[in-house]
Amino acid sequence: MRAGSNNPAVVIYDGECPICQGGVRWVERRTLRGQFEFLPCQSPERRARFPWMAEEACLEALQLVLPGGRVLTGEAAIREILRRLSGWRWVGRLFGLPGLKLFAPPLYRWVARHRYAISGATPRR
Question: How far apart are CA 40 and CA 15, in angstroms?
């Protein structure tokens, strides 16, 4: 995707999660303008624009909605985000290596389930 594109990839994340918020800030500092748009799962704008996306799904895992409408979830979303960041593409490619490809999904799910405990925050739900 080129910078300044009219259709950025949309990153949908848990807006109450400190780990998720930190990840979004990290990506924002490394992205080209117009490359990504960031929407908290809990926002009215996300509900209006993506009504088909269940809130449970976007609270369970990061969602990346690509310009063509394809949705990547969890570790696949992280991999694609990294592949789109100049200087970080190599890290995204690592996710495709046999060992990481096998362990990334369960590791992502474990971190996602325990993200509030890991960050020391209490969910507001």
Answer: 5
- Residues 6 or more apart whose CB falls under 8 angstroms from that of 16 comprise 40, 42, 121, 123, 124, 125
Tell me the CATH number at 47: 3.40.30
Inside any domain, residue 124: no
Could you tell me the pTM of the whole model?
A: 0.83
Q: Which two tokens stand for residue 100?
A: 């990481």
**Spatial contact of 67 and 1, defined as CB atoms under 8 Å apart:** yes
Residue range of the domain that includes 68: 9-119
- The number of folded domains in the chain is 1
User: Mind listing the pLDDT tens digit for each residue in 16-35?
Assistant: 999 999 999 999 999 988 89
* Nearest Cα to Cα of residue 1 among 33, 30, 25, 49: 33
What span, in angstroms and rounded, lies between the C-alpha atoms of 37 and 66?
10
In a domain, 14, yes or no: yes
- DSSP type of residue 40: E
Tell me, yes or no, whether 33 lies in a domain.
yes
User: How crowded is residue 104: how many other Cβ atoms within 10 Å of its Cβ?
Assistant: 19
